[in-house]
TrEMBL record:
Signal peptide: none annotated. Residues 22-31 have a biased composition (Low complexity). The gene is MIF. This is Mini zinc-finger protein. Keywords: Cytoplasm, Metal-binding, Zinc, Zinc-finger. It comes from Gerbera hybrida. Residues 39-94 form the ZF-HD dimerization-type domain. NCBIfam families: ZF_HD_prot_N. One of its GO terms (molecular function) is DNA-binding transcription factor activity. Pfam families: ZF-HD_dimer. Its main location: cytoplasm. It is found in: Cytoplasm. The lineage of its organism: Eukaryota, Viridiplantae, Streptophyta, Embryophyta, Tracheophyta.
Length: 102
């Protein structure tokens, strides 16, 4: 059996450029942007050690201790998925931004 190497590239949008005009920066300082990060489906390849490709089908990341109120701190339980048991880094990262004013 021949092993195959698969390379996956992830593209994220570039950060917005800083304002070029200092007077514009002070005028726009009242506007803020809310960034919400969530983690989607699991992309872990469970058959990588045998040269195949198989994912478990976990649809969305759920922290292992989601009900304890420790969502602000990143402990071992919050970095482990309760559904599939893998680390949060194996899940697709989805960044949602929305403008908001004070």
């Amino acid at each position: 059996m021949t092993k195959r190497r698969v390379v996956l590239k992830r593209e994220e949008p570039p950060p917005p450029p800083p304002p070029s005009n200092p007077s514009m920066a002070s005028a726009n300082s009242s506007n803020t942007i809310r960034v919400h990060v969530r983690y989607g489906e699991c992309q872990r390849n469970h058959a990588a050690n045998v040269g195949g490709y198989a994912v478990d089908g976990c649809r969305e990341f759920m922290a292992a201790n989601a009900g304890t109120g420790d969502e602000e701190e990143e402990t071992d339980g919050t970095l482990t998925c309760a559904a599939c048991g893998c680390h949060r880094n194996f899940h697709r990262r989805v960044v949602e931004t929305e403008p908001s004013s004070p």
